[in-house]
């Protein structure tokens, strides 16, 4: 169908992109001894050499300015059992860290207990993109947890799901 020249309806755009399954991460940092973080599904690898990753964050984010100031962040790749963690860090203004166990990474970023893996990054570059900022980080350390039966937390068609549901469906 040829382009109509009409603007893309935001809800239609969101629905179309919802058909792309993505993993769920929590991006974290530590500012003056206070942990900060937010849920992020727009995370991906950029380069193997040097090891670069990227995520997108709303330009109006309350958490990202602190991460920019710190110059570093951790990517916590959530396990399928961490729906509650994802929901907690998706909220604005609440005490996101209440009841969440974590420890410090080598760069001094919070690593959330139970995550499948984590990546410790320094901010490499930023790019303004519409209502978001694209952040590129250079991976300085990472942790691969012991292989378990745990699967990643996925988001598809507006809801959390697991790999077996996607394969069967």
Question: Would you mind describing this structure in some detail?
Answer:
- The chain is of the alpha+beta class.
- It contains four helices and twelve strands, in the order αβββββαβαββββββα.
- The protein has helices at 10-17, 64-70, 83-90, 163-168; strands at 22-23, 25-31, 34-40, 43-47, 52-58, 72-77, 102-104, 110-112, 117-129, 132-144, 154-156, 159-161.
- A hairpin with a 2-residue loop joins β11 and β12.
- The radius of gyration is 17 Å and the shape is globular.
- The model has no long low-confidence stretch (mean pLDDT 89).
- Give the rounded overall mean pLDDT: 89
- CATH class, please? Mainly Beta
Distance between the termini: 28 Å
* Main sheet properties: 7 strands, antiparallel
Query: What's the name of the CATH homologous superfamily?
Result: Electron Transport, Fmn-binding Protein, Chain A
Note the total helix count: 4
Number of strands: 12
Secondary-structure-based class equals alpha+beta
Globular, elongated, flat, extended or rod-shaped: what is the shape? Answer: globular
Domain unit count: 1
Unreliable parts? none
Q: What is the architecture at the second tier of CATH?
A: Roll
- Percent of residues in beta strands: 35-45%
Rg over CA atoms, rounded to whole Å, is 17 Å
CATH topology: Pnp Oxidase, Chain A
SSE pattern: HEEEEEHEHEEEEEEH
| Order of strands, widest sheet | 3-2-6-9-10-5-4
Helix proportion: 10-25%
């Amino acid at each position: 169908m040829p382009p109509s020249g009409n603007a893309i309806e935001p809800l239609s755009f969101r629905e179309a992109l919802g058909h792309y399954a993505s993993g769920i991460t929590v991006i974290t940092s530590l500012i003056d001894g206070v942990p900060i973080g937010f849920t992020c599904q727009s995370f991906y690898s950029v380069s193997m050499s040097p090891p670069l990753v990227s995520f997108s964050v709303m330009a109006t984010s309350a958490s990202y300015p602190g991460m920019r100031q710190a110059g570093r962040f951790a990517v916590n790749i959530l396990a399928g059992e961490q729906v509650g963690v994802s929901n907690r860090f998706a909220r604005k203004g609440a005490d996101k860290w209440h009841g969440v166990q974590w420890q410090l990474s080598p760069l001094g970023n919070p690593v959330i207990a139970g995550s499948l893996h984590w990546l410790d990054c320094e901010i490499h570059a930023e790019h303004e993109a519409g209502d978001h900022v694209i952040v590129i980080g250079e991976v300085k350390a990472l942790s691969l947890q012991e292989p378990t039966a745990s699967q990643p937390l996925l988001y598809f068609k507006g809801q959390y799901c697991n790999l077996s549901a996607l394969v069967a469906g």
